[in-house]
Each structure stands twice: as C-alpha cells, then as structure tokens.
Amino acid sequence: MSTEQLSGAEIVIKALVDQGVDTVFGYPGGAVLPIYDALFQQNSLRHILVRHEQAAVHAAEGYARSTGKVGVTLVTSGPGATNAVTGLTDALMDSIPVVCLTGQVPTHLIGNDAFQEADTTGITRPCTKHNYLVKSVEDLPRIMHEAFYVARSGRPGPVVVDLPKDVLQALGAYLPKEEVQHRSYNPQTKGERPQIEAAVEALARARKPIIYAGGGVINSGPRAAELLAHLTHATGVPITNTLMGLGAFPGDDPHFLGMLGMHGTYEANMAMHGCDVMIAVGARFDDRVTGRLSAFSPNSTKIQIDIDPSSINKNVVVDIPIVGDVAEVLEEIIAVWNERMHKLDADALAEWWKQIDQWRARDCLRFEQTGDVIKPQHAIKRLYELTKEYEDLYITTEVGQHQMWAAQFFKFNRPNRWMTSGGLGTMGYGLPAAMGVQVAHPGALVIDVAGEASILMNMQEMSTLAQYRLPVKVFIVNNQWMGMVRQWQELLHGERYSESYTDSLPDFVKLAEAYGAVGIRATKPGELDDKIREMLATPKPVIFDCCVDQVENCFPMIPSGAAHNEMLLGPGDRTEKPVSEEGMVLV
Amino acid sequence: MANSPEELRAQTHTEKRTIAVLVDNEPGVLARVIGLFSGRGYNIESLTVTEVDPENRLSRITVVTSGTPMILEQIKAQLGRLVPVHKVSDLTRIGPYVERELALVKVFGAGEKRVESLRIADIFKAKVVDASHEHFVFEMTGKTDKLDAFIQLMRPLGLVDVSRTGVVAIQRGAKGL
Ligand SMILES: Cc1cc2nc3c(=O)[nH]c(=O)nc-3n(C[C@H](O)[C@H](O)[C@H](O)COP(=O)(O)OP(=O)(O)OC[C@H]3O[C@@H](n4cnc5c(N)ncnc54)[C@H](O)[C@@H]3O)c2cc1C
Ligand SMILES: Cc1ncc(C[n+]2csc(CCOP(=O)(O)OP(=O)(O)O)c2C)c(N)n1
C-alpha cells in the first residue's frame, strides 16, 4: 500500500483510470466540484458534458452495451442524482453495467435537509444493483473498486457511489484494484455438471426443439454468441431472439426465426408454442415474450441457462435450470454433446422445419407501400437496406412502434450493435444512448431510430452532439401520434384517442439547424432513398424527419393476455378476437 | 434443497417458511432486505436482526414469510442476489430446527385476576421480571404459538402492553449455517 496522500477526488480519478475507464459522462454542481477540479488537472480521462443527467446515464449505457465495458457517469447531489434515477432504473432492467458517481452534502450535514441534499442511497436502492454511501476517505478506494466489480460481474447492473463533499476533500491513501476482494459477492459462473448432462440428453431426444436466446448472451460477451451459433449449427435447431437478444445470433442465418413475443414473428411464436424442448439462453421469460402464462409453450421440456438464480422459475417453471454464465455453460454443453456423439432425429427435425417453413410462408411482416404516403415499415426497411453494407453500424431506438419495426426489419449479425430500452421502455433513451455509442466508436455509423414524441424527451442532447462533433443520425419516423399508444387505443379502447396526438410539434429541420446539425425531410416514397443517402453522406449530426402514414399499426401483435398461437397478423384480425379482461389489466 | 418442477407448478397452496440470512453488517442492509419484501409484494410475518459475529461484521436475519412454493423460491433467490448477503438458508426445508421468540407481557390488575395471571404464568413457565402491587411484567420464551396462547389468556386478566422480539431460529444438530 502506498503512503502517498491523495484527496478523495484524486482517489476517485485514480480508481477510474485503474479500472480502465477512458470516458465519463457527467454534469457538474456544487457537491462534485472537487472531482471536476481534479478532472481539470489530468488528461487520462475524457469528460463528456451532457445536457441532462438522465442522458448521462443513457449515454453510459450506450457506451457500455456497444463496448462490453462499464459505463461511467458523474452527477451532482440532489437534483443531479434524482435526474439520474430513470437512467439507473433503465440500466437495472436491462442488465447494463454502469457506475454512477453522485455528489452528496458533507457527512456532518447529511440528514439536515441541507442545500441540494437528497437521500440518494435511499432513493436509488431499489433501482440499482447495489449502492454505497462513502462515509470516510479510508473506505473510498475499496468502494470504488468494488463498485466496478459489482457492476460488471454476475448479472451486470448499475451501481451508485454517493460521495459526500468532505470525503472528496479529505486526504487518504490509494489502494490499487488488485488489493480489493469482495467479501460476499461471488456469482456462480460454471454450470453444474449433472444439469448440463440432463440438458444435453433432453436436447438429444427432442423432435421439435427451439433455442430462445436473450440479452444474457450479449452480457456474457462475443464468445457466448460464437458458441451459440456453434450449438445452433451443430444441432440444426431453429433459434429465436428476444428484443434484448437481437444480434446474439446472426439475423440473416436461415436458422433464425426472427424476434419472438408481442411483436415478434408468427413463425417464432408458433414454434415456441409448438416445441417439445426449449432452451432458454440468457433470457428471462418476460411478459412481453410469454403472452398468457397459462398457455405458454404448454408441451415443452424447458431448459434455462441464466447467471441469476432469481431469473429462473420466476414466471415460468423450468425443468432443467442451469445457473451459470452463458459462454461457460454453452462450452460444456457443446463438449458433452460432442463427446456423446449425439445427433437429433433427422426425420423429426426435417418435419419440424417443414412445419416452420409453412409458418414462415405466412410472411407475417408483409406490408404494402402503395400511394404517395411513406409507410413507416417501408421507411425502416429502406433505412436497413441502405445501411446494411456498412461494416461499422450501430442502431439505437426510442420507444414505440418505430422501435418494434426496427427490431423486425433490421438484421444484426453481431452482438453489441443494437441498443434499445427493453425492460423499462424509456422514451428518450435512444438519442443519448447513440451519443454514448458514437463516443466509443468515433468512426462508426450510429443511427437513432426515433419517434417524434420520444425524441423530444432528450432532445437537448443535440447540443452535446454539436459540441463534441458526434455525427449521430436521428431518423424520426414521424407519424405525429404516440403511435404505440394510439394503436392500443384503437385496438383495446374503442378508438378513443385520448391525449395521444401531439399538436404543435417543432419543425424538426429547423430544430436541427438551431442545434448546428443538418435537417432533412422526406414526405414521398419516391424521394426516400435519395434523402437517406444524403443523410448517410453527411459528416455531421443529422435529424431526418421522415413523415409517414399516421395511422399504421404494428403487426404481428399478441394482445396482452393472449397466447402465442392467438396472434393478430394484421388489421383484419382484430374483430374476431376480443381481448380478455385479464389481458386488459396488463401493461 | 430446491423444489422439483412439479412442486413449483402446483401453485395452489401457500406455505410458511423460516429463512436465515447471513449478511454484512453494513449501513442500509436491513433497508435492502425490507425494501425487497415490500417492493416485490412478499409477506413478512416476522423479521429479526442482530450482529452475530462482531469480528467479521456479520449479522443474522431471521425472517418468517409465506407464499406459494414458486414465490418462496423467488424470495430466496432475490435475497441471495443482494450484494451484502453471504448465505440464505431455508431452515424449514433443510430439516429440523429450533425456533424461539421472547415476549415481555405487562398485566395490570388486582384480586382474583392478579392471582390467576400469576398461576397461568407459572403453567407457561413465564418469569416475573418486574412487579408492583398492581402489575406484573412477565418474560416468556417459546414458540410463536405458545406466546400467542399466553398473551391470549392474559387479555381478560388486564393485559396492558406486549413487546415481542420476533422469531429467531437455528438448525438442529452439529452443523453450522
Ligand atoms: C414497446 C415494447 C415492446 C416490446 N415487445 C417485445 C417483444 O415483442 N419481444 C421481446 O422479446 N421483447 C419485447 N420487449 C422487451 C421486453 O420488455 C424485455 O425487455 C425483453 O423481452 C427481455 O429480454 P431478455 O429476456 O433477453 O432479458 P434481458 O433483460 O436482456 O435479461 C438478460 C437475462 O440474462 C441473464 N444474464 C445476464 N448476464 C448473463 C450471463 N453472463 N450469463 C447467463 N445469463 C446472463 C440475466 O440474469 C437475465 O435473466 C418490448 C419492449 C418494449 C418497450
Ligand atoms: C418516459 C415514457 N413515458 C411514457 C411512455 C409510454 N409510451 C410508450 S410508447 C409511447 C408513444 C411513443 O411515441 P413515438 O415516440 O412517437 O413513437 P411511435 O410509437 O409513434 O413510433 C408512449 C407514450 C414510455 N414508454 N416512456
């Protein structure tokens, strides 16, 4: 241990550098001024000055999801910390590793209703994986290192470190990260052998198997995605991804059935319903995925690989649970599979694929671009077609119909290329997340697929893009409605469109210009491609205002409370299948 | 010992469980545990906590809860993933265990009722820890239902105040947590 005395603020910076951090997204204020002072006097860390603390956390999420590293934010006490709460909750729901440093009033004033005091650890306890209030500078280096360890290991998540100002100013000794060991937190990453063997045997007997892979594959790292592809190809099994899992398996591989769930493909949902063995890999049986639980995949043996025991048997009882890291467990499963020279029954598998191909033939994502109004699906499909050759492409989204269409029409062949707010569904996520991605990948093409309502929730970050010359492209699918809300009102609330239309929208082209970006508008199908190309050729941030059909709905759709085999495939479907009361109470 | 898939699917009945949790004795740890129960809508029938290993700064929480087998599995998994938690042990399922609670019971009265309260206390092996001409404070240790029965009997005899610790429990036999 070194005896050199550093200030708390210097210890914070040193720990960040020691943890391999190169970028911090933050916003200053009284309580964190000592850290800003220390930042000013060093050049190992880059600080990105956001325009709102919520955006700082989403930017850190985008940074983290696209690099596999921990994202870092720095905000002040009180309002700085409370503004960060939505971002933290988002990161918790989607298992994104983020360390959020918050300023706090000096220790002797805590509890005194001091200026800009908030009970940050109290407020963030339920929306972080863990949090710390640092009461003494002696604890600071240990807590800093623990925070990173907790954020990234096991099931990743956000960690808050609350830093009273006097602790930042006190002098103390630094402790390198190697000298810090966590006392209690030690997640299990290796699966148990008997369970792995049982899973292999169940798979070997399958006649109608399916792999259902989620965000945990991406959390586990690129090796997990490789092993998943290996297992899929070695067995010839069909595979579907959750919204969070897109990119975990190549989107243009013939084994891929597309996304499953509420707005997933017909073939993916029918295959989930009809399978006899299901392998859930880093996926948590979310209600958007399962539909009505009592009718979820009724005849299958369920295997689940998850690093978090609380994800197992939460909504759906599984037959063979395997607690462990996706990559480690898949490695063993493949080894056992090979050792035992298993092969699936070829005739049964061919029969299963034949059935799947019939479902596929329904072509459930079909739409018609007719007339001279741009269909939103067409807009997103063209955006995909015109960008798919880009080697370095990252897509973020806001929340709503545009998000679902992006999930349906973009095909990701690699993990870490798709950032979306799945669990919390946070409108306003996409722009700051794109900002974080672009900071991490300066040369890449980063597009935020947006809705006109969502984008207004963190629009201020256009100013950050301008300041740091981050050429993010914001592609607004502008239907003037909160489309997803409008759709539910149409289908479930008797077409009473209560408060889902946005009047007085800004002129997005002029708004772009006001922010020093470029504004482009497309209103006709005939001009769409050229305008998209113009956007792609622009080396600056762009807001693309794509004016689309205002009343288009997103299909397929499993209405809440319905089962996988009760999907609505298009507008004609709705009258036949009223939504149950049980379904109406669901979100 | 985990439940079998069949047990979990049979979701009709609720069970009561006594769970021991070994945690780091750090600020906020109790708030974390209680927040987990309230935030996720789990029941707490009783919860006790005290430091049990000062040298290693470990506290032991004993929580009595109820739910369907699936909920109970969730409760244990959710407790287990709290960062300062070292160990979660489902005493009810692991096997025989001893469960005790302590109550202090104050009874006010004179004459026949007063004599009767003393007589019942004697039957229940409750100790008198404070007394005047008009009151007793009884101390009683035992299982929750025994304490319940005692307090019930004291009610008509002038019960004024009750303070209970909640349940503490430990596994029988030589093995530690
Ligand atoms: C408007 C809207 C519509 C939506 N519609 C759909 C839809 O149609 N279909 C859909 O799929 N989703 C949809 N979602 C998203 C949905 O709400 C959930 O966020 C999503 O389904 C969860 O994905 P997941 O199961 O992959 O879990 P994630 O949230 O990604 O969780 C990952 C799981 O993997 C585990 N894990 C993490 N790391 C590891 C590791 N290293 N090893 C092993 N396990 C690990 C975690 O413990 C967790 O259980 C929608 C969201 C919105 C906002
Ligand atoms: C912060 C927040 N508030 C409210 C909602 C509820 N919500 C979900 S989708 C949606 C409408 C989004 O509209 P828009 O961004 O225009 O996208 P569209 O559905 O039209 O593509 C709303 C209000 C939400 N997800 N997030």
Helix percentage of chain B: 25-40%
Mean pLDDT of chain A: 96
Classify the secondary structure makeup of chain A into a structural class. alpha/beta
User: What coarse outline of chain B follows from CA principal-axis ratios?
Assistant: elongated
Q: What's the CATH topology name of the largest domain in chain B? A: Alpha-Beta Plaits
CATH topology of the largest domain in chain A, by name, is: Rossmann fold
- Any idea what the shape of chain A is? globular
Q: Quick one: CATH superfamily of the largest domain in chain B? A: ACT domain
Describe the main β-sheet of chain B briefly: 5 strands, antiparallel
* Portion in strands of chain B: 35-45%
N-end to C-end Cα span of chain A: 53 Å
Number of domains of chain A: 3
Q: Mean of the pLDDT scores of chain B?
A: 95
Low-confidence stretches of chain B: none
Q: Helix/strand-derived class of chain B?
A: alpha+beta
Radius of gyration of chain B: 19 Å
Report on the architecture of this protein:
The complex is a heterodimer of chains A (587) and B (177). Chain A is an alpha/beta fold and 587 residues long. Chain A folds into three domains: 5-179, Thiamin diphosphate (ThDP)-binding fold, Pyr/PP domains (Rossmann fold); 193-360, 3-Layer(aba) Sandwich (Rossmann fold); 376-547, Thiamin diphosphate (ThDP)-binding fold, Pyr/PP domains (Rossmann fold). Helices cover 38% and strands 16% of the residues of chain A. In chain A, helix 1 crosses helix 2, helix 3 (53-67) runs parallel beside helix 4 and helix 8 packs across helix 13. Chain A is globular, with a radius of gyration of 24 Å. Chain B is α+β, with helices and mostly antiparallel strands and 177 residues long. Chain B has two domains: 5-95, ACT domain (Alpha-Beta Plaits, 2-Layer Sandwich); 98-171, ACT-like. Chain A, domain 2 (Alpha-Beta Plaits), CATH 3.30.70.1150. Chain B contains six helices and nine strands. Chain B has helices at 5-9, 29-39, 69-80, 91-94, 111-123, 144-154; strands at residues 15-24, 46-53, 58-67, 85-90, 97-108, 127-131, 135-142, 159-164, 168-171. In chain B, a hairpin with a 4-residue loop joins strand 2 (46-53) and strand 3. Bound molecules: flavin-adenine dinucleotide and thiamine diphosphate. Residues 94-95, 155, 214-216, 219-220, 242-245, 259-264, 282-284, 286, 288-289, 305-308, 311, 325-326, 399, 403-404, 422-423, 425, 484 of chain A line the site of flavin-adenine dinucleotide. Chain A: Residues 196-333 form the Thiamine pyrophosphate enzyme central domain.
